[in-house]
Amino acid sequence: MINQLISLSLKNRYIILLVAAGLFAWGAYSVSQNPVDAIPDLSENEVIVFTEWAGRSPQIIEDQVTYPLVSNLQGIPDVKTIRATSMFGMSFVYIVFNDKADIYWARSRVLERLDYARRLLPDGVTPTLGPDATGVGQVFWYTLDAKGMDLGEQRALQDWYVKLGLQTVPGVSEVASFGGFEKQYQIAIDPHKLDYYNILLSQVLKAVKSNNNDVGGRKFEMNGTAYIVRGLGYIKNLSDVENMPIGVINTVPVRIKDVATVQMGGDERLGIFDQNGTGEVVGGIVVMRYGENADQVIQAVKDKMKDIQKGLPQGVTFKIAYDRSALIESAVNSVKHTLIEEMITVSLIVILFLFSWRSALSIIIQIPISIATSFILLNAFGISSNIMSLTGIALAIGVIVDNGIVMVENSHRSLSIAQKEERT
Fold first, then answer.
1. Which of helix, strand or coil describes residue 217?
2. Contact 203, 215 (CB under 8 A)
3. CB 180 within 8 Å of CB 157
4. Number of domains in the chain
5. Residue 262, in any domain of the structure
6. pLDDT value at position 350?
């Protein structure tokens, strides 16, 4: 069989050269399309459902949120297993699918079940899907260098300007904010004053919710001009909260400031984010979408940050805390250097031992064609270019080269024997 293949290839050498050129061109295109990352993604094919219920204990979360969700999410096609965990105020459900399942198909099936499961949850509790990313999706971290700006202002700048801009970058699944204080209006109620005015706590909560809203009116025409009537009720400052009416005593309105103290503060924090021991910082974590090219996403994020920088306040700049592209470029350059070194070494060995540049050329040509073909297979199986896969290619080149040297040496030996027989 092997002899027939060799004979067929020798008789149709131009066709073989054409096929080799086609494989090399296809492989070169596959190299440009193959996702590049530093580390292989070995995470499971899973969809995360998280639910917040502030102030509830882990046992309540387990009984009223986690258990109903897990019970109703079972039975989805291609599900391998379902794991869950409950903690203070939070519930996490991990639905692990088979590797063959498409991640976005899996997310849509989970959403279908969540629509049914919501009716079993307490009022006001809404489960949410996690980002369409994997465990190695955190490709870029940054912080804000804003000297003289308090942490609350920095967090507001991050949440309402920087984060929204970076989320528009193609390939970015989520930008998670960290550090600082999330600004909020805090109402510290005095229970003795509530009792004095005979006002319930539920009245205060209802008043705050109902007064922080715009209302629509109607359109009317006057002197040939149409006017739209609406009520502006969104909270803009502390006085708006203080003057909200919560009840009436003898035709005199009772306002929030009569029973409570209103102040601007930060949300409760469970920790701080410190950078190199220099103090607290505010920043974000860029999470890459499933199956994207990490190197391209990071470069696109950096380009977008240059545009966002133009709109930042004076003296505020970005500082990079973690950039995976440096590791990616180092891994790719290492493999490139290895390939060049192997090609030079093989050429010198063949020329020195066989004294034939044509033999060396035939072996060297095998290397780029083999590498190009391997990238075709990487794309076919959905494997990215990372340290593991590129190292495997570099190791396999040694086997290819060894085979080429052995075959060329045998060919030279056979030709020498044939020439001696003809002379005799």
1. strand
2. no
3. no
4. 4
5. no
6. 67
